[in-house]
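Limitations

Structures in this collection are predictions, not experimental determinations, and the ligand pose is part of the prediction. Treat each record accordingly. The example that follows, with S-adenosyl-L-homocysteine as the small molecule, is included so readers can see exactly what is and is not provided: the inputs are given verbatim, and the output is the predicted complex.
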Amino acid sequence: MTGKVYLVGAGPGDPDLITVKGRDVLQRAGVVLYDNLAAHELLDLAPCAERIYVGKKKSDHSMPQTEISQLLIAKAREHAVVVRLKGGDPFIFGRGGEELEALHDAAIDYEVIPGVTSALGMAACTGVPLTHREHTSSVSFVTGHDPSKIDWSRVGHSETLVIYMGLSSAADIASRLIAAGRAPHTPALVVQRATTPRQHTVRTDLASLAEAVKPLKPPATIVIGEVAALGDKLDWFARRPLHNKTIVLLRAPEQSSESAHALRSRGAHVIEAPVIALEAIDFAVPDLAAYDWLLFTSANAVRFFFAQIPDTRRVTPRVMAIGPATAAALREYRIVADAVGEGVAENLQGLSGRVLLPRAAVARDVIPGVEVLPVYRNVVPPGAAEKIAAIAHADFIVFTSSSTVKNFLALDGRRLLDAGARAISIGPATSETLRAHGIVIAAEANPHTFDGVIDAIIR
Ligand code: SAH
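Predicted complex:
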């Protein structure tokens, strides 16, 4: 029995630009063959799959095309679902046709799932429409791999030209186009790492193109034509408030992805490096009727407590939440806090009678007048040290609890702060711990929620 090979377009760089169908098939993959243009994050969708890098860079053809095709055939005999993941679209300068023919000849079942090609990703994320009623009604996709093979007198008149793989031959292409009659002042645009938080755009014209591309490295795509001048006004992507900023998130994996998404949607390059993980503690369910107040100081405490409470309708004590995120977590259990406070100390006096405080197990567990119930503990997740060590540069580091501060420092994170990364704190308790360790706080969130953190970074 042989499996099926899926030729999947990974999209132009932003991992979220893969198609739904492409993502689904990746999740079912037994093996993924990928190259350097496909976003690495996409491999996380197939955590158990065998991964084979068949990368192709111009300078180093790691694996010849025939070998890739042979490997696809061999893998189809081992796995039910084989994914060949290609940057952009497999059929636009991706040699997808050759791979498909080899599969066909070997009688292997296959399917092609298209992807957003770089030209379209680049157009969307620079605000440059490739066609425009007033400027152009035709567009050509051209490879710059070998300009001598192209009849520039024909494509040269196509109004919008999108040139893939054109960085190293840009000078040659520009002079051939001008020789073929295209005006030297025709607008041109070069977009590097399009659709990613590192996208970089250079605006120029045909005459200056050769000079303009000199500092750039692949992958980059060149657009030539009147439309190239339009993007300046419509450049929504680079105008997002956190574009090109690298932000490190240290919070536990359960909370990290939503926060990361919120930052990414504002243009940030987010590195998720959780330095804490939360572990449930099995506790004996207390007799809640014996208490007057239940006090929660974090959303985590709420979740780990109620995970072990069979029926939340039996929660008879009054409930106090410290912080809006804690109150929101209570609402997930259909509990409306009777009181919402800012900090623990100033609110304790207001609580009369017996108070139960479910929270993390920590060393200094004495708060006068309350009974502490440890419901979870913070641990350092495996691999955290390596993740921190792998970070080369950061603009901001987000501290969302005292534990993130302590663990980050224990994992040698201070080097990033020393190199200029700025510390953002979610609230007073975290700030206190930061100060105690001599860390300068660039901004503290207000309100003390992740939305507050985002505002603080932007400010
Ligand atoms: N199949 C791919 C193209 C592969 S050829 C697709 O459909 O996009 C490689 C070329 O694609 C690069 O030289 C560059 O011109 C373009 N490219 C790929 N990713 C890019 C990116 N993120 N930004 C700009 N150009 C990109």
